[in-house]
Amino acid sequence: MNPHRKRAKTVDRVDSADSALVSSESTQMRPFPSKPLSVDRVKSVESSESGRMRPFKDKILFVDRVDSVESSESSRTSQFSDKISGFDRADSVEARVDSAGSTRMSRFPDEVLERVLALVDSHKDRSAVSLVCKEWYNAERWSRRHVFIGNCYSVSPEIVAARFPRIRSVTLKGKPRFSDFNLVPEDWGADVQPWLSVFSTAYPFLEELRLKRMAVTDESLEFLAKKFHGFKALSLLSCDGFSTDGLKAIATHCKNLTELDIQENGIDDLGGHWLSCFPDSLTSLEILNFASLNSEVSFDALEKLVSRCKSLRVLKVNRNISLDQLQKLLSHCPQLMELGTGTFMQELISGPVTEFKNMFSNCRNLITLSGLWDATPLYLPVIYPACARLTFLNLSYATLRSDELSNLLSHCKSLRRLWLLDTVGDKGLEAVGSCCPLLEELRVFPADPFDQEILLGVTESGFVSVSRGCPKLRYVLYFCRQMTNAAVATIAQNCPDFTHFRLCIMNPGQPDYLTKEPMDEAFGAIVKTCTKLQRLAISGLLTDRTFEYIGKYAKNLETLSVAFAGSSDLGMEYVLQGCQKLRKLEIRDCPFGNAALLSGLTKYESMRSLWMSACNVTMNACRVLAKERPRLNVEVMRDEEGGDDSQANKVYVYRTVAGPRKDAPPFVLTL
Amino acid sequence: MITNMEKQAQAYEIMANNKDLNLKATELRLGLPGSESPEREVVVHGSAIKILVAGAKRGFSDAINGGYGVGLVKNGGQETDVLVTPKPALLEKKTQVSDKLNGQSSSPAPKQQVVGWPPIRSFRKNTMAVSHTKNEEKDDPKIGSGCLYVKVSMDGAPYLRKVDLEIYSCYLDLSSALEKMFSCFTIGQYGSHEVRTRDGLSETRLMDLLHGSEYVLTYEDKDGDWMLVGDVPWDMFIASCKRLRIMKSSDAIGLAPRAREKSRNCTEPNNE
């Protein structure tokens, strides 16, 4: 292999490997065409390093190498202020910085470079930027304010702090996604405290923290509230381990709080007193979301809070807030852009449309509406005045029927995103198709997902109706009990712009109900037609053919969820071979075994993670994988001891520069 | 005279041409304790997995055993999902048999779910469970949810239906609707389609229709008693009906006298 090709290959890897540390969703990573020499330099610098050094192979250049270069520099350049100094190993291509900049390759002085790069937001772009050359790498790391860590175990807080000195905002994701569906035991890990401890020294001015599927304790929340004096924004989604006492600490101590966003967590709800802990002096709140908390808060405290926070733009209250309380709140914050209502009915003297007809009349900025618990046709007209401007309407907790929805949607011409319950039926979806031509996202949730005996809900025909009327659809999540290949093919033709296609036929392994054939052709049609597809969730009776299609056509696919599908190892192999951009693969209850697992040996380091549960994988194969790929953590969740032959029931594989977990509970074996 | 079993066999032949689906093995039957119901190998939810096994030969049953045999995740007791296994021991479990029915029938087996399927987050699961209960309890017409859904089951059919009693105004409408809904499940010729006037104590049209198929329509009232449909005035019926069941005439023999006796004694609609 000639040296140039070798380097080029490595650049590619660095590109994708860097996303171990920093990666994002939307924009595509642009491969960097130039400067393979920089990689070479990284390599040679690295060879003088100790510590986290591993012999450089012509494999994936991992983030740690870039980092270890980094950390060797930081000790020498600790007097850094705004200037970035080049490395001592100057060469003709990348010269040292001097203030005159006369021998520089790049034309900008560092300050300009940093200022320009500060405007680059996307993580993928930033990853690409950091690979251009040393200069740009350093400019990038100094100008970065937000770091996104898609897997908290892929990197350690120390490494992050070493590389990015000036972070103000962190997004951190922990447990594998299937933990949302109870497939991951409690105490699995993803504790946020080690991160907070490091951040308290590295980023004392941290302002934002967004956590998803992390384990968070009240102590951690209190630590956060007390140690970070300028802290502004906290968002917790699908986390667990804390109670409303933790929220008390946040409310009490965060003097500059702008955002408190609590969504769907495993929270111990001890009461609504936390809201009363906001001091009277707090006027900075812009986002407050406590819709998923069950206990009642003091309305008086809430009203006062809302009144004094003039910049409030997002308010999502919980179900205990009544309609007339809501009306009072809205009178204080007409500037609201996003509203989540409380319960949307109550006993009235004259009638809802009379008593509440002005509720929304002053809310001229309202573009998102959610909540609407218990909304009935009698009360929905209250929101009509606001409907024309709405771009996102979340009716997924309102058990509406088709005619009720139809009446409502006739007022909602601007909708881009719509979430529904399947009580609206196919007829309701017809209304969606006719009323919402701008629709880009549709999610239809099942009202009664566990009652297998019912045949209510939506079917393939509702989906087809929507696709006819809404050609701009790009995101769909659809729960149904029956589907056909022909319908999905039609849908794909109507909406070729899908980026996210998540179809859940709720009965596992169910075929096309008309032809009785597997649903292979349905997903085949999707991947063939929708070339921009990034995320796919499949269901129904599926053979290896589905995976063959996916591997062959879904070239932009990044996330794939598979359940109860496939016929043999080939299925998984097709996907691993064919989907070059695959980052997350989660599989449950499929007949994929060791051969399938090991076919991805060279692939997993370019992915964020792999989950396989209730498949046919043995401990042996996992051990082989772990041995061959030391830069992966191969974790098996076990319930009992077994020999080499025993099944590996839950396997979680992910790339990491942080080595094996130090906090793994006893039931997690890192091989 | 063809037996019930053979009739049902024909029913399934018609329903599913694809023999791979093996519906017979997966049929949901409301068997009587001690009666001869065919051995089931998997519960209704697991039947779908059975379908999968038929189509996918390789090692999948191993995967099932491997997957489901393992102990369930501990999740703080919040969830009520139950692990499904194909092991027979679990499947023999039947729910409580109502004593009032004199052992004539049993309610359907508890829904056995696969862990984490369908993939819905806990918050939504718990929230919808609460809402759903609220809706089912709401049958006060003043609050007017506008619907009164009751489940309709038919002996031998693989799944239930739900009907909204509010949308019908008399037994006639209900019977036509049910006839349409369940016609695919019955063989046998319907009797004459002549209409009879509604009369509290005479047989309904539906019973005529079903008579040929050896089925009768019964309902469970608020007291938990099973009564023949048609015995009481329509308004009283919908006020007290909790669920409907199309059962075999042979099973319904014990009901008739009690039903008539009850309606004779009944002077006013049942209160909640």
TrEMBL record, chain A:
It holds the Pfam family LRR_6. Pathway: Protein modification; protein ubiquitination. The keyword Coiled coil does not apply. One of its GO terms (molecular function) is auxin binding. GO terms for biological process: auxin-activated signaling pathway; pollen maturation; SCF-dependent proteasomal ubiquitin-dependent protein catabolic process. Residues 1-50 are annotated as: Disordered. Signal peptide: none annotated. It is found in: Nucleus. Residues 108-149 form the F-box domain. InterPro entries: COI1_F-box (IPR041567), F-box-like_dom_sf (IPR036047), F-box_dom (IPR001810), Leu-rich_rpt (IPR001611), Leu-rich_rpt_Cys-con_subtyp (IPR006553), LRR_dom_sf (IPR032675), Transp_inhibit (IPR041101). Its main location: nucleus. Keywords: Auxin signaling pathway, Developmental protein, Nucleus, Ubl conjugation pathway. Residues 38-50 have a biased composition (Basic and acidic residues). One of its GO terms (cellular component) is nucleus. CDD domains: F-box_AtTIR1-like (cd22159). SMART domains: FBOX, LRR_CC. This is F-box domain-containing protein. It comes from Ambrosia artemisiifolia (Common ragweed).
From TrEMBL, chain B:
GO terms for cellular component: nucleus. Keywords: Auxin signaling pathway, Nucleus, Repressor, Transcription, Transcription regulation. Residues 147-249 form the PB1 domain. Residues 98-110 have a biased composition (Polar residues). One of its GO terms (biological process) is regulation of DNA-templated transcription. Residues 95-115 are annotated as: Disordered. InterPro entries: AUX/IAA_dom, AUX_IAA, PB1-like. Pfam families: AUX_IAA. Its main location: nucleus. It is found in: Nucleus. Aux/IAA proteins are short-lived transcriptional factors that function as repressors of early auxin response genes at low auxin concentrations. Belongs to the Aux/IAA family. Homodimers and heterodimers. PANTHER family: AUXIN-INDUCED PROTEIN (PTHR31734:SF104), AUXIN-RESPONSIVE PROTEIN IAA17 (PTHR31734). This is Auxin-responsive protein.
